[in-house]
Specification:
With 253 residues, the chain is of the alpha/beta class. 44% of the residues lie in helices and 15% in strands. The chain contains 11 helices and 8 strands. The chain has an 8-stranded parallel sheet with strand order 2-1-8-7-6-5-4-3. Helix 2 packs across helix 11 and helix 8 runs parallel beside helix 9. The two termini are 18 Å apart.
Length: 253
């Protein structure tokens, strides 16, 4: 978490550069290098999506090479949405941290604490799926609980309590529902949110920032993938997005 905080302050940025590579292997290797080199100045973090690498014959090598190309001091969050029982989760954590060299992961909490705690190593970041960006309303996440609140509320509360014990645990909260972002912030005032859904998925950047920023102007990592990958100049696109984000931050340091 300290690495993230240091990077956010140094770059004056809340931008998370998503890496969802599409194209043939040769094109992808070149474009990954371009996007990383062009956006590093503006990135608070990078988020490679595991599926887009594992679908390639040499995907693990490409992923390791990609992570190694990212400058030191910029956190790398491996978006694998891991979620399995403790002994299996431990092996996923070894893969993410020891094999790939990631600084953090995304985790599906459906199996409870067992799916989360093995990733909560000292110095690592864990972002727990709470309210995702794929749909404004969900048949599972929005189920009302008899004790009050929804299943996504429960996931947020579990993550907050585990953060109090282990540290470094935040939430994945989609930008496609600003009201949900505000609710997650009310339930977890201090935690960091990894926020997909701005751009191609139609999330409202201003509404999301208003709903989710902490009073100190931080607490959100705004992820963008396709808009940067497809841009003629990924660096210029990243700079523009950082400027847009900082317009709405109550504190920009």
């Amino acid at each position: 978490m300290q690495t993230l905080l240091t990077r956010v302050h140094a770059a004056n940025s809340l931008l998370c550069v998503g890496l969802d590579p599409v194209g043939d292997d040769a094109q992808v290797a070149r474009r990954l290098a371009e996007v990383i080199d062009q956006t590093s100045e503006y990135a608070a973090a990078f988020k490679p999506n595991l599926a887009f690498f594992l679908s390639r014959e040499e995907g693990v090598k490409l992923l390791r090479d990609t992570v190694q190309r990212i400058p030191q001091g910029i956190p790398v969050i491996l978006d694998g949405k891991f979620g399995d029982i403790a002994n299996t989760a431990d092996h996923y954590a070894r893969f993410a941290y020891d094999v790939i060299g990631a600084d953090g992961v995304t985790v599906n909490p459906y199996m409870g604490d067992d799916a989360i705690v093995p990733f909560a190593r000292p110095g690592k970041l864990v972002f727990v799926l709470a309210k995702t960006s794929n749909k404004p309303t969900h048949s599972l996440q929005d189920v009302a609980l008899t004790r009050g609140g929804s299943l996504s509320d429960c996931a947020a509360t579990v993550a907050r309590k585990l953060d109090e014990q282990h540290g470094g645990i935040g939430l994945v909260v989609g930008a496609t529902n600003a009201e949900a972002v505000a609710r997650m912030r009310s339930l977890t005032p201090e935690q960091w949110f990894l926020v997909p859904g701005v751009g191609a998925q139609g999330g409202d950047l201003q509404a999301t920032l208003k709903a989710g920023l902490r009073p100190d102007g931080s607490g959100l990592l705004i992820n963008t993938s396709r808009a940067l990958w497809q841009a003629a100049d990924a660096g210029a696109a990243a700079r523009e997005l950082v400027e847009q984000i900082n317009q709405f931050r109550p504190v920009a340091v």
